[in-house]
Amino acid sequence: MKNPWVLFVASRYIFKGRSNSPALAVLGIAVGVLALIVIIAVMNGFQLGFIESILEISSYHIRLENFPQERTSELQEIMLSIPGVKAAIPFKEFQALARGRRAGQQAAIVRGLNENTLELDHLMKNRLEFTQGSFDIADKGSVLLGSELARRLSLGIGDSVTLFSLLGLLSSEDESVIEELKITGIFRTGYFDYDCSWAFINLDKVKSLDDQSSLVLGIKISNRFHDKFLLEQTRKKLKNTDFADIKLSSWRDYNRSFFGALRTEKLLMFILVGLIFIVVGLNIFQAQRRSVLQRREEIGLLRAVGGSEKEVQFVFILDGIIIGLSGGVIGLSLGLVISFNIQKFFTMVEIIVNTAINLINMLAFKFGTGISESFYIFSPEVFYLKEIQSRVIPHEVIIIFLFGVLSSLLAAWFASSKVTKIQPAEVLRYE
After folding, report:
1. Residue 124 counted as domain residue
2. Greater confidence, 146 or 403?
3. Sequence-ordered list of residues with C-beta below 8 angstroms from that of 313, at least 6 positions apart, any chain
4. How many domains does the chain have?
5. Are 93 and 249 in contact (CB under 8 A)?
6. For residues 369 and 7, what is the distance between their CA atoms, to the nearest angstrom?
7. Which residues, 6+ apart, have CB-to-CB distance to 180 below 8 Å?
8. Do 323 and 371 belong to one domain?
9. Please, what is the end-to-end C-alpha distance for the chain in angstroms?
10. Are residue 140 and residue 268 in the same domain, yes or no?
């Protein structure tokens, strides 16, 4: 720094001799950064869990449709030759009615897959958790059910489920659309819509249930955000082949409304929690403005001994920078610790709250009142969750940290602008 006295004076002002302590301002910035990091991390955990379940199990990253079924292997080889393509999975799906022996019936989406699908698609394998059995659809008479679907139908591993093709039932009375299949696996994805309405069967079995469904080739790529680039590469690769006219679509096309809603929800939450920084910034502004007025004589003296307007103003701006950095670093550190240990943090909060509830119940017992129920932040009875997940995205954390620092910096800069209006001759004339 060209004039080290600026930093010295700023540090003296902020740590010594100030009538208004910066502790509350630092605390405000820290709480804002901490809250925003933890809330966004938990929201990312929920949203990315849903998004990954949709992309890795249902929609795939890129879809190819309207191609000759007998040339599926040839199209697979072409797609796998494109750099960035990890898997090419053929599938068919249709709507059906599932009926158990001891319970009612439930609408379901039945997808036909090859028996080696999980060997080719490791991303899907990571999203499927088998509570009973395994991914066993080698036998054409086998079926895999979602855990909630199996529960609603009161079915378990080894039981039989009857599938009715809805299209077949509407178009004809042909009994070939009714099949009884044996359950060889029950899976859980963590996404309720899939667990309560999805079933997997052997791809070759689909024809006997619904011969009108078309074959689709689902493509998985190494980075789903490169889908537009891969679409262009695919079009170029297929341009001079017999597959030039097939339909191509990416996950952005058929999930646009849902992902758009998630993005809007996250943005609004970001803005609402970010209001903390506005409140803290106004507090810093008022504190710095008051400090400038209280130190008019000192400012006049600094100007009289050679300090320029910018240097004296920078003394107060440094106060804001120190407050912002201190609060930002504290909030960032605590926020990351909590986000990476979110399950333990929520468990600790629940223990503290439930302990307080028990004490209140003990004190209120003689009056015949009290709080009877235990407290859970995310109760399994309300939320379809086994555990709370959090995802920390580095660039979001950096943005939140910078928000905290900049709110303090801007507040100090606006407040210190009054320094330029103080004339040393007028101030020192009365001293």
Report:
1. yes
2. 146
3. 416, 417, 419, 420
4. 2
5. no
6. 60
7. 160, 161, 162, 163
8. yes
9. 32
10. no
What's at 78, amino acid-wise? I
Residues listed for the chain: 431
Domain encompassing residue 210 = 67-245
Res. 144: pLDDT tops 90: yes
pLDDT 10s digits, 309-343 = 677 777 777 778 888 888 899 999 999 999 999 88
Which tokens go with 17? Answer: 């001799």
State the pLDDT at residue 110.
Answer: 92
Amino acid identity, position 295: R
Alpha carbon 317 to its chain centroid, in Å, reads 36
- Cβ count near 363 (within 10 Å): 11
Give residues with Cβ within 8 angstroms of 221, minimum separation 6: 61, 62, 84, 85, 86, 227, 230
Of 245, 272, 289, which one is at a domain's C-terminal end? 245
234 close to 82: Cβ distance less than 8 angstroms: yes
pLDDT at 45: 87
Span 231-258, pLDDT tens digits? 999 998 888 888 888 889 888 887 788 8
Tokens describing residue 262: 């998630």
User: Is residue 367's pLDDT more than 70?
Assistant: no
Query: Are 233 and 264 members of one domain?
Result: no
Say whether both 114 and 241 belong to one domain.
yes
189-208 pLDDT tens trace: 888 889 999 999 999 888 87
Which residue's structure tokens are 């235990």? 374
Q: What type of residue is 375?
A: F
Domain edge (last residue) among 189, 214, 245:
245
Q: How far apart are CA 340 and CA 332, in angstroms?
A: 12
Q: Which amino acid is at 189?
A: T
Provide the pLDDT confidence category of residue 176 given band limits of 50, 70 and 90: very low
54 located within any domain: no
The per-residue pLDDT for range 215-228, each reduced to its tens digit, is 999 999 998 888 88
Question: In whole angstroms, what is the distance from residue 398 CA to residue 33 CA?
Answer: 10
Residues 43 and 71 in one domain: no
